[in-house]
Design a protein that fits this description.
The radius of gyration is 17 Å and the shape is globular. The protein starts with 5 loop residues before the first helix and ends with a strand. Strands 3-4-2-1-5-6 form a six-stranded mixed sheet, with helices on both faces. The protein is of the alpha/beta class and about 130 residues long. It is built from five helices and six strands; from the N terminus they run ααβαβββαβαβ.
Amino acid sequence: MSFLSQPQNDYLCILLSESIDVSAARAERFIKEEIPDFNNLALYGAGNIGKITLAKLRENGVEPKAFIDDTPSLDGAVVDGIPVMSRTKASSNLSDVTVVVTILNPALQFLQARALLQSVGFSCTSIMTL
């Protein structure tokens, strides 16, 4: 018995039968579509996952422009050398950034976070893209 529908099962079988090179090329295309410019990123969530993501990005030569966080006490703060802004302030001060959602919290699921960010004009992707 499968938990997947037949089309999903077929797609999964196709993915699992790909060579490593084909899979890597597909992943690279996906990442470029989701994050067109790694020099113009912001991170949504300045908590633990955001800080870990920042450290890993820095290891790879990427320096985000800002943290975006809805915690009022963090607005205007600096976390690990990166300014923290509210969504409203960020939408006025950051242009053409891709926002990476670094919040893993059942109280704010990715689809909700994406809707909040899109409501102020941001394009965004999940931390899972990275």
